[in-house]
Amino acid sequence: MSTREVPVVIITGYLGSGKTTLMQNILKQEKRKIALIVNDMGSINIDASILNKTGNKVAQVEMVQMQNGCICCTLRDEFMAEIERLSEDGSVEAIFVEASGISEPSSIAGAFLNYEEMTESTRVFLKTMVSVVDVDRIYREFLHNLTSDEDADDGDVINLIMDQIEFCSLMILNKTDLLAREQLTEVKEGLRGIQQKAEMIECVNGEVDLDVILNREDFDFEEVEDYSAVQRALNNCEHDDEKACVDEYGISSFVFEERRPFNRDAFNKLIEEYPEALIRTKGYIWFSDDWEHVQLFEQAGRNASITEVSEWISSWPKEELDKAVSDFPDIMDEWDETYGDRYNQVVFIGKGYEKAEIVKLLYDCIEKAG
To answer: Measured at the alpha carbon of residue 362, what is the angle toward residues 356 and 365, in degrees to the nearest 5?
Structure first.
């Protein structure tokens, strides 16, 4: 059974949000001895005098680059081996991990907790998932569409940032000095639309007291997952209600489900004229011109993306499909005679919209028979 002696803090946040600056400031605080793992030592450039003065340790771990940018595969080998090695140093009171700017925090946390359960002798435990948020970028690119033409190819960046915000137990709102108070208030209200419960801490240049990060309740995966407005909608909303569910922040949400495919051209036109009242949209869809691939549709503020992510099981060759059904008979529980497992399921989150109007727009995009 784990002795749970050394807390581990995972720091996420997109490139440029201020993760490195935050870590530099944490290392300067002579409150506790901290060990730090970063993706690339060249990117942090910590002054050696800081380390010599405080006795902190910095470890370089080469993270394996997965397709989705996640480091979870290394949690079973080099990454966790380094954490375990650092935890054996009696002077280390906490370990901070600066995750890749393109990492998916829920995958990291899930793999870490799985490691804890599978490794009885580990001394480490996941304490906090931190998301460092560039409030200036959120204001410009999430709330107001000021993205330049050069950034057009990065239209899904804001969706990745939203993923990092949705799954965290602490949000550090960095660069607050770049916004007026009313602008910052607008950002915080927007963030509450997609992240319901995590504590928000405002700061400039990543200056946050170490105790604020460490002196809190231990990380709870299921609780943090439920913080996400997307997950809350999936858990709580009745799909056949005429009205959307409304939470304490006045944010409403509903889940759209439909077997029939979308017409690609009609759906793309909807995205071009997307309702401004919708804050966040996320879910899996499929198109009538592609019966093979699952598409992930994401929208955050003025940004939207459609990404091909996998194949529908019903598109597999017969021998592979038969084996899958034999091994996992539950597959057939929601199998449709015509469409198999193909299914549109999308969560819509916003404020001041009429569900019936959004649903009509969606059904106008459904491929018509014949």
So the answer is: 145
